[in-house]
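Hello,

Our lab assistant flagged a job as stuck in the queue for most of the afternoon. It eventually completed. Since we weren't sure the result was trustworthy after the delay, we are filing this so someone can double-check. Below is the sequence as submitted and the structure that was eventually returned. Let us know if re-running is recommended.
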Amino acid sequence: MRMATLEIKKDQEELKRLLQLASRENVKNILLGHIEQLQKSVDEDESKNVNSSTSAPSTETKAATSPNKPTKLPLQKISSYAWDQSDSYVKVYASNLSGVQQVPSDNVSCQFNTRGFNLFVSGLNGKDHQLQIVSLYGNIVPEESKIKIKTDCILVMLKKASKEKWEGMTEIDRRKKEKQKAESTPKPDEDPQAGIMNLMKKMYDEGDDDMKRTIAKAWTESREKQGPGMGDL
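-- returned structure --
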């Protein structure tokens, strides 16, 4: 409480004692008027003190609950990786992560689901790094999948749901392989010779120069032996 308020209250007490001693009605009214005026001053002063005391914690609370947001680091997508497999696991090697073995373990995380994973490394060399595949070649067992942090590299171990051999990493790879197999497999009612022709054409179109020369030579020799009826490459 401020000194001015204390003095006003002392004046009030003095006036109240005089009021008890006064006998004339006019004197009592004058004293009551002064007492009421002093009480208004005290009330106003105390009200200001209450407002200032309640506003101060509010400022502190805002300061406490509104800390400076950490600077968001640029995100580096990990687009290239190596992989191999065994009957039980597909191993993905996320390399070129210089010094990753030195970052806190909490900065490295990997989330798994039955057909994908999301590897995330935060705060490595001033960047965040991410390797995410949302649609794998085959199903995995998330609970038995894990990561291992190596020197400048993270090994993602995907536990296979079956012992199927993977011929790629993604669902797109699977579809390409299935399409290639379907195109190279003769249909039951298809002329076997036509199936061989289509296969050789495909090999010719996709092969390098040496492969094309070899196929063209074999094709020419076969036409010469079998006579007319075979088409051109």
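-- support follow-up --
The delay was a queue issue, not a problem with the job. The result is valid. The first strand starts at residue 75 and ends at 77. DSSP finds five helices and eight strands in the chain.
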